[in-house]
Design brief:
It is a single chain. With 498 residues, this protein is α/β, with parallel strands linked by helices. It has 14 helices and 28 strands. α3 packs across α4, α3 (49-66) crosses α6 (140-146) and α11 crosses α12 (286-296). The chain is globular.
């Protein structure tokens, strides 16, 4: 049977549409409800839907008066404060194109991004200006003064027009500029039932930074679009996260897998309203999911996606153990240019008509959407089971070659993670002598960590050619700022003298 699942089409986006107007529609229905709680230096600052909408559309008026017009690209270098979503939505209201970037990037790294996109303006915190930028520069104190201006009316139009630019993490090379349409936020509705089970009564608490698309979408825009409340704790300290989860009565908690691991190492009182957790950004180890279930009696629902299309495979609270295609999506696994068979590892692909798919990469002033016969082929590998469940096997460049067999590192990692005391595992190939490569497993675990027990587990549950020839304990695995494993850096951990 072909590895294809077609649950499309998704409900169509309205033809007269604006991202900001859609996200803040709840301001008309529940103006006094708390839309956002942001913790700044440990202090909870709360904003109602009416306050949030007033700030966004007032800032839009100020930006227009400052010279920002429809189609202009504007770089955002703003920290984890309410200024970030206010500016992002204000730009969308004007039909300008927001370009969020991390304040952790150096000026040199930001200049690389500017070379790709040529923004007209930049909005930044006073401490995060950019030397040498010759466009219009506005600082957040100026924007805060705009909030009380008469509100701008959002510009409605074709949902397929450019909405915002997100930069990929660069784990596979240089970051790429991904252009999304206004419709991308509407397409996120497929996650409401296919991942979150989100309702207007929920309190969504997200432990990420605003500039991360996981936080911006899951933590802010989706709760607001359905009329729920969002909480941004602005901390990754486990004790503080548990306290805020309690105080804000969070019903859904979202974070990267590493945050869950740290939370489980801290004693806590069960949050009273917590229904389930959400995990994305990296692979969630089974051991972490099971430990969370045992200790909180709630599931963690994992999702898989990418900057170019957000998440499209996910688990749900009613079926938390397996990834499935979200309602409204059409997903396939390819072997080259042909559909793979179910059970075969191949390239995960998204239908080119998916409403959440990007408009394309910005390349030398052109916009390029690379499709093959109507499909967008990701850089990720997976396999579709007979019942339609999908397993993630790793990025295309991650697939190992062991004695002529293609081996997914994630398959090996999942087996080794089941060993008692093991917290994380990273598997790759190591060149032990010129042109001789073997499979190596780098393990983060409790002390003592029994490497012989890991070898025995691999021998029991993995074919001989899949078993690591090197198992080495390390203090930590290399990860990017969003917590995603940098597999290409794993070979540098190998110590031949151990």
């Amino acid at each position: 049977m072909d590895a294809l699942i077609d649950l499309s089409p998704a409900p169509p986006c309205p033809q007269n549409f604006n991202l900001a107007a859609y996200v803040l529609a709840a301001a008309n229905n529940t103006p006094g409800k708390v839309a956002l709680t942001v913790y700044e230096a440990g202090v909870a600052r709360k904003y109602s839907y009416a306050q949030l909408a007033r700030a966004v559309f007032g800032v839009a008026t100020g930006l227009r008066r400052a010279g920002i017009a429809a189609g202009d690209r504007v770089l955002l270098r703003i920290g984890n404060t309410v200024d970030f979503p206010v500016c992002f939505l204000a730009l969308a209201a004007l039909d300008a194109v927001a370009m969020p970037c991390s304040i952790a990037l150096t000026d040199r790294e930001v200049q690389v991004l500017l070379g790709k996109t040529q923004p007209k303006a930049m909005i930044c915190d006073p401490s995060h200006g950019l030397a040498g930028f010759d466009g219009l520069t506005l600082q957040t104190p100026q924007l805060q003064a705009f909030q009380n201006l008469p509100p701008a009316r959002p510009i409605l139009g074709d949902p397929n027009r450019p909405g915002y630019i997100i930069f990929t993490s660069g784990t596979s090379g240089q970051p790429r500029a991904v252009l999304h349409a206004h419709r991308a936020v509407w397409a996120r509705r497929m996650m409401w039932t296919g991942w979150y089970e989100l309702t207007p009564q929920d309190v969504m608490m997200h432990a990420g930074a605003f500039n991360w698309t996981y936080t911006l979408g899951t933590g802010l825009m989706d709760p607001w679009a359905i009329g729920a409340s969002a909480v941004i704790p602005n901390t990754q300290e486990p004790a503080e996260l548990w306290q805020i989860m309690q105080a804000e009565e969070a019903s859904i908690f979202a974070a990267a897998p590493g945050i869950y691991r740290r939370l489980l190492q801290q004693s806590f009182v069960q949050p009273p309203r917590l229904r389930h957790g959400l995990s994305a950004g990296d692979v969630l180890p089974r051991s972490v999911r099971q430990s969370w279930q045992d200790r909180t009696q709630t599931p963690i629902c994992e999702a898989f996606g990418m900057t170019e299309c957000s998440t499209f495979l996910s688990a749900t609270p009613s079926a938390p153990e397996h990834l499935a295609v979200q309602p409204g999506r059409k997903i396939a696994i390819f072997d080259g240019d042909a559909l793979a068979e179910r059970g075969q590892i191949g390239t995960i692909a998204v239908d080119g008509r998916d409403p959440g798919l990007m408009l394309g990469y910005i390349e030398d002033a052109a916009i390029n959407l690379p499709l093959k016969n109507g499909w967008y082929h990701t850089a990720d590998q997976g396999q579709m089971n007979a019942d339609g469940r999908i397993g993630f096997a790793g990025r295309s460049g991650d697939i190992l070659n062991a004695g002529g067999y293609r081996v997914a590192p994630r398959e090996i990692e999942q087996v080794l993670e089941a060993c008692p005391g093991v917290q994380e595992v990273g598997v790759t190939e190591v060149e032990v002598r010129p042109d001789v490569f073997v499979i190596a497993a780098f393990v983060v675990g409790e002390d003592p960590c029994d490497l012989a027990q890991i070898d025995a587990l691999a021998a029991r549950d993995l074919a001989r050619y899949k078993q690591p020839r090197i198992v080495q304990k390390v203090p930590a695995l290399p990860r990017n700022p969003n917590g995603k494993l940098i597999r290409a850096a794993l070979p540098q951990l190998w110590n031949s003298e151990l």
